[in-house]
Amino acid sequence: MWQAEVRVDLDAIRENVSRLRSGTTAELMAVVKADGYGHGMLPAARAALDAGADWLGVCTLDEALTLRRAAGVTVPVLAWLLAPGLPLHEGVSAGVDLGTASLAQLDEMIEASRLAGRPARLHLKIDTGLSRGGATVADWPALLDAAAKAQADGLIEVVGVWSHFVYADSPGHPTTDRQLAVFHEGLAMVEQAGLRPRWRHLANSAATLTRPDTHFDLVRPGLAIYGLSPVAGETYGLRPAMTARARVMLTKRVPAGTGISYGHTYTTETDANLAVVPLGYADGVPRHASNTGPVQLGGVRRTISGRVCMDQFVLDCGDDPVADGDVATLFGSGADGEPTADDWAEAVGTINYEIVTRFGSTRVPRVYDGEKP
User: Fold this and answer.
1) Among this protein's residues, is 33 annotated catalytic?
2) Integer Cα distance of 213 and 197 in angstroms
3) Are 165 and 93 in a shared domain?
4) Which helix (H) or strand (E) holds 11?
């Protein structure tokens, strides 16, 4: 008998990837960083590959090496969040593609290539306006010249050029067009430097869904493969893959005027049946869901009563019957009227990305539907 669980529908991931794949002529990179956005990196990666994903994308070197070594993944894998001093030669030896955005990073890639005894496969990143990763437009020519020389010397291979959008989740925002123009200018400089990368990529989930003119050779959907939309108010036919739920641990009848949980930030207005649910902020429930988080119990949507604790929260069920062991669903696909990750994001003032990635606690087991032998 389970107490709390996160269920992940791998068939939903397959359907979402197939839908995204059918909407582009570009190759598709399924982004499975952050433990597959909380869904489990390895099962999510396998499901995405089942559905025709051509690439996998991650942030860290460790994530990439896990895909190569633990999962036996042979498709191209790109890792792009690489701090100084990492054993990059292990990534090069494993055939991992590496994001590069500065002369200092390029020097590390060259040294990694020497240690590995083979050229590193690099994706040079230009900052087109996010002001996060990537070389600035001012620094781009020097990075290209140095990369072209290293490639001519047989030390590296520039296989990709890429960037990342700021406002693609707001269709029609003028920043997207400005970034696209900068990217085109950056690509022209790449050609002038004598580099001929096979893959040019810019489109995240939102641009994959809304801007086919940004698809180039490769698209990089992340959130969308898990069935969540990056654009508010639109679903694009995607099916959410994650459901978070728990069994009621304890029920009790209390009189009107009873304070609930730490600080008594909630007080019952009438005599009420309370349900104690064994999930808390240590499991991924945001503490700021106190008195706001929606939960379905007994076919009724309710709101968390009082503060979310480390391991549990309470629901005021009024006079509705409730029993120990009843299932409380925090969020799911919404098909049965339960809240969704979007509902939770709205309730606590965040984004759906954060809601699902929070539920990666080792205390709450992930159960997979649609696993293949």
Assistant:
1) yes
2) 19
3) yes
4) helix 10-22
At 372 the pLDDT is 83
Residues of the chain with pLDDT under 70: 361
Q: Say whether 353 is catalytic.
A: no
Same domain, 193 and 222: yes
Last residue of a domain, one of 168, 193, 226: 226
Give the number of other CB atoms < 10 A from CB of residue 254: 16
Q: Which domain holds residue 293?
A: 242-369
Cα–Cα distance between 53 and 48 in angstroms, integer? 6
Task: Decide if 183 contacts 137 (C-beta within 8 A).
Answer: no
Identify the H or E element spanning 272.
Answer: strand 272-277
Q: What is the pLDDT of residue 316?
A: 98
Looking at residue 141, what is its pLDDT? Answer: 98
How many structural domains comprise the chain? Answer: 2
Q: What would the two tokens of residue 103 be?
A: 């002369």
**What integer pLDDT is reported at residue 84 of this predicted model?**
97
Q: Which residues pair with 7 in a beta bridge?
A: 243, 367
CA 332: distance to chain centroid? 16
**For position 178, what pLDDT does the model report?**
98
- Verify that 138 and 21 share a domain, yes or no: yes
Number of H helices, E strands in the chain: 11, 19
Q: What is the DSSP string of 315-361?
A: EE-TTS---TT-EEEEEB-STTS--BHHHHHHHHTS-HHHHHHH---
Alpha carbon of residue 334 to chain centroid: 20
Catalytic-role residue among 226, 262, 266, 372: 262
Strands laid side by side in the 4-9 sheet = 250-254, 272-277, 313-316, 300-305, 294-297, 327-331, 242-247, 4-9, 366-369
| C-beta contacts of 61-64 below 8 A and 24+ residues apart | 61/86, 61/87, 61/88, 61/90, 61/91, 61/96, 63/32, 63/33, 64/91, 64/94, 64/96
